[in-house]
Write a structure and sequence with these properties.
Elements: H1 6-24, E1 30-37, E2 60-63, H2 65-68, E3 77-85, E4 96-104, E5 113-116, H3 117-123, E6 134-141
Parallel strand pairs: 1-5, 2-4
Antiparallel strand pairs: 1-6, 2-5, 3-4, 3-6
Length: 143
């Protein structure tokens, strides 16, 4: 027979549930796919030929149907990181980028985002070789 009070067991179980909930909630973003796309980047659905709207660091993307939202995605900012790739070692570990949506990838694009070559190369180690589709975690934010 246990000599511990029922309160002790409740505290232990509560503590374990708290730890499990912390471990289970390591990710706060959505999961999707990304590929790269090459210049020319204009005209775009968002800004036409006005490249002054593009981020100076060239970290931008075209939105796939999943996030396009009828054009409301134009100008949205996302934090993006690579979490998986077709090729072993395809992700640059710990790398995350801030991208801006400047275009529409089209209804036939299977990717959540099509990243500029510069953006793709910052998170995918196979970015310089034409890459492939990568699995990304992304989260919209307001600067």
């Amino acid at each position: 027979m246990s000599t511990r009070s029922p309160c002790f067991h409740i505290h232990v179980i509560g503590g374990l549930l708290f730890i499990i909930s912390l471990l289970a909630d390591l990710s706060h973003g959505d999961i999707g796919t990304a590929s790269s796309y090459s210049p020319p980047y204009v005209p775009t659905e968002c800004y036409g030929y006005d490249t002054s709207q593009f981020p100076k660091d060239k970290l931008f993307a075209a939105a796939g149907e999943e996030i396009w939202d009828g054009g409301a995605a134009c100008g949205r900012l996302y934090l993006v990181r690579c979490i998986g790739a077709q090729l072993a070692g395809g992700c640059i570990e710990g790398a995350a980028i801030e991208i801006m949506i400047v275009n529409y990838a089209g209804a036939t694009s299977a990717a959540t985002m099509r990243l500029s070559e510069t953006a793709y190369g910052r998170i995918a180690s196979n970015g310089r070789m034409g890459g492939g589709t990568i699995i990304i975690e992304f989260q919209q934010y307001v600067s």
